[in-house]
């Protein structure tokens, strides 16, 4: 007998989920469904994202609502628009064979009239983000008097995002007799307080150990110098040719800078952050979901609710400020029983943070060595060999040319042909990694290292202001060249510049306080390699850049997707729609305007 039937789910729902490939319940479903099917209890479920929570509450809801009545009987609150749409879609799929089920997704950033119209037509399940829900309640546009169940999904995320008061207000609109089911990946005291304030003797369930990172996630860290971070990051990405990853940064600026640098280096990457409009976000997510992007560079807030399966790697380009966020980040991989790798790029001073995270997730990190150039080349070579196996052959089209191809290759042995075809791509990797240095540090940083990479300096010297510029060593600036570039554009003397801290994709530099304004003025309209140059006061919001900045980046990434391939126009047949082709071409010769920058 189907195990879902055994749990008490009826045939028409089981038929629908079987079509979705659900063969047996996930651990949270196995534990939660029997409790929730009774409909008698409040409930707290501690489970990570991607564990099958939606069905854990969705199937019992569908079992218990009366679909002959067209009034809201269940309200699901969740933190983001993406999650809201996902839950509504999932519920509709589970209910495929039940008549008259009406689900509405209510979320901000979309036309409210459409949502109001759907509510007026009659719905039984409302899936909502708190802000828009309150808006609709405020318009007296919804009647919650028949609500029997309220689900708070990703409760910790909702509280993180400051929805506490909104949730209180919404809950006060629902009847006292309703049951509240709360799901959360973590249980900080704020979530615990909701359970205490709004629930009566809730049944509590934990999947896995409390606050434990998903068992299927391998946690690795690489210790590198700050100045080598970008190079090490690319090397790790190149070491995993089939990577489909989310890269987390701490700030919007960092996401943009990394994405821009990656695009420039030929990777299929784009950034997701709070400055994007909803439409832009949707577009990026669509490309990622469809695998036209291989790397999604995101901030914590922007990545909330990302529900993409098969993410192979989460990369913490910067560790999160809040340790809790590490759990959320790494939970984006290893969804639905799959395995995944969570990678952190750290400098020596961040080791204590790793130890702290280990305590929280109850798992040890493994220190990995940044692969050597030769190791990357080997990996890429065998990826090419795999691609030969997997490539889709368009028989009718290639057959026309085959006799001619065979004829022109007839002087070569089979081995020669194979060698040459493999070399076509492999040579680029060999060239790029020819003299690649070892990027690992041995864990014992010297004073010299610290001073050299400047990472220990965060504050500016007396009488100087520390500024940020979005160009760095990947743009092939040396410190001297950066000094010249700044002085020339700002029309100030080199004596006014203090320390220059050259990083991968950006640089910090000090300027005498009285000259700062000149730098801002001087860089107002400056572009470098088609990219707007941006200056900011380090750690503050103040900035100067010309308006084409983000537009330029997006255009370039869009172009790569329009072509349906990477910048080399290639597509692989290894099950991935596109592949990066690596950041090799750019570095193996054709750098642009490197000497004409002044
Ligand atoms: P969720 O945590 O609800 O977002 O689910 C994560 C993913 O797992 C979704 O793609 C679900 O469709 C899938 N899923 C949920 N439950 C099962 C199951 N019992 N068997 C197979 N896949 C599932």
Write the topology of this structure.
Layout: H1 3-7, H2 11-19, H3 27-38, E1 43-46, H4 53-64, E2 74-77, H5 81-94, E3 103-106, H6 112-121, E4 125-128, H7 130-138, E5 149-152, H8 155-160, H9 164-171, E6 179-184, H10 189-198, E7 203-206, E8 217-223, H11 229-239, E9 245-248, H12 252-264, E10 269-272, H13 278-289, E11 295-298, H14 300-303, E12 313-316, H15 323-330, E13 340-346, H16 351-361, E14 366-368, H17 373-390, H18 395-408, H19 414-432, H20 447-453, E15 464-469, H21 479-490, E16 497-502, E17 507-512, H22 516-522, E18 527-528, E19 531-532, E20 535-537, E21 543-544, H23 549-562
The structure holds adenosine monophosphate.
Supply the number of helical segments.
23
Helix content bin: 40-55%
Number of distinct beta strands: 21
- Name every ligand kind in the structure: adenosine monophosphate
Strand order of the largest sheet: 3-4-2-5-6-1-7
User: What is the global morphology?
Assistant: globular
Structural class determined from secondary elements:
alpha/beta
CATH secondary-structure class of the largest domain: Alpha Beta
Strand proportion, as a percent range, falls in 15-25%
State Rg: 27 Å
Q: Determine the mean pLDDT.
A: 82
CATH topology-level fold name of the largest domain: Rossmann fold
In the predicted model, the low-confidence regions spanning at least 5 consecutive residues are 443-458, 546-598
What does the largest sheet look like?
A: 7 strands, parallel
Cα separation of the termini: 75 Å
CATH architecture field of the largest domain: 3-Layer(aba) Sandwich
Per CATH, the superfamily of the largest domain is P-loop containing nucleotide triphosphate hydrolases
The figure for the number of domains is 4
């Amino acid at each position: 007998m189907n195990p879902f039937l055994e749990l008490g789910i009826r045939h028409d729902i089981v038929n629908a989920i079987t079509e979705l490939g659900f063969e047996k319940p996930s651990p949270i479903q196995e534990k939660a469904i029997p409790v929730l099917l009774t409909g008698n209890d409040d409930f707290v479920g501690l489970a990570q994202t991607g564990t099958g929570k939606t069905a854990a509450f969705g199937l019992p809801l569908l079992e218990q609502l009366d679909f002959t009545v067209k009034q809201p009987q269940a309200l699901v609150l969740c933190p983001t628009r993406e999650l809201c749409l996902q839950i509504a879609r999932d519920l509709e799929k589970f209910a495929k064979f039940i008549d008259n089920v009406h689900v509405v997704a209510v979320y901000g950033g979309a036309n409210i009239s459409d949502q109001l119209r759907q509510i007026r037509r009659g719905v039984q399940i409302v899936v909502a983000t708190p802000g828009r829900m309150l808006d609709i309640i405020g318009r007296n546009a919804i009647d919650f008097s028949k609500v029997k169940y309220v689900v708070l999904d990703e409760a910790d995320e909702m509280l993180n995002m400051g929805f506490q008061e909104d949730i209180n207000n919404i809950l006060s609109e629902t009847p006292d007799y309703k049951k509240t089911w709360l799901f959360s990946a973590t249980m900080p005291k704020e979530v615990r307080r909701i359970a205490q304030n709004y629930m009566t003797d809730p049944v509590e369930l934990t999947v896995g150990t409390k606050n434990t990172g998903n068992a299927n996630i391998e946690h690795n860290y690489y210790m590198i110098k700050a100045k080598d971070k970008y190079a090490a990051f690319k090397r790790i990405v190149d070491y995993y040719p089939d990577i489909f990853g989310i890269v987390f940064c701490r700030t919007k600026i960092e996401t943009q800078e990394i994405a821009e640098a990656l695009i420039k280096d030929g990777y299929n990457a784009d950034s997701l952050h709070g400055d994007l409009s909803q439409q832009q976000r949707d577009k990026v997510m669509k490309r990622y979901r469809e695998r036209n992007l291989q790397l999604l560079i995101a901030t914590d807030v922007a990545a909330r609710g990302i529900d993409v399966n098969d993410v192979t790697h989460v990369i913490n380009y910067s560790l999160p400020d809040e340790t809790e966020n590490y759990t959320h980040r790494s939970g984006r991989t290893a969804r639905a029983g799959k395995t995944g790798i969570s990678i952190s790029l750290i400098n020596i001073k961040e080791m204590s943070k790793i130890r702290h995270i280990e305590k929280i997730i109850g798992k040890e990190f493994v220190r990995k060595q940044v692969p050597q150039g030769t190791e990357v080349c080997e990996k890429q070579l065998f990826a090419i060999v795999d691609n030969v196996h997997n490539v889709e052959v368009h028989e009718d089209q290639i057959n026309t040319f085959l006799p001619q191809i065979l004829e022109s290759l007839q002087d070569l042995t089979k081995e020669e042909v194979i060698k040459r075809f493999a070399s076509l791509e492999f040579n680029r990797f060999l060239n790029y990694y020819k003299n690649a240095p070892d990027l690992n540090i041995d864990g014992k940083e010297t004073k010299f290292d610290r001073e050299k990479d400047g990472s220990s300096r965060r504050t500016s010297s007396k009488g100087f202001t520390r500024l940020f510029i979005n160009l760095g060593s990947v743009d092939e600036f040396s410190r001297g060249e950066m000094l010249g570039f700044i002085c020339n554009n700002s029309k100030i003397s080199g004596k006014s510049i203090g320390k220059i801290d050259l990083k991968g994709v950006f640089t910090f530099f000090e300027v005498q306080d009285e000259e700062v304004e000149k730098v801002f003025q001087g860089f107002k309209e400056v572009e470098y390699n088609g990219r707007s140059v941006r200056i900011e006061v380090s750690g503050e919001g103040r900035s100067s850049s010309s308006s084409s900045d983000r537009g330029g980046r997006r255009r370039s990434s869009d172009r790569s997707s329009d072509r349906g391939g990477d910048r080399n126009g290639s597509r692989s047949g290894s099950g991935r729609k596109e592949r990066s082709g690596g950041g090799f071409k750019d570095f193996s010769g054709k750098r642009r305007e490197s000497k004409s920058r002044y």
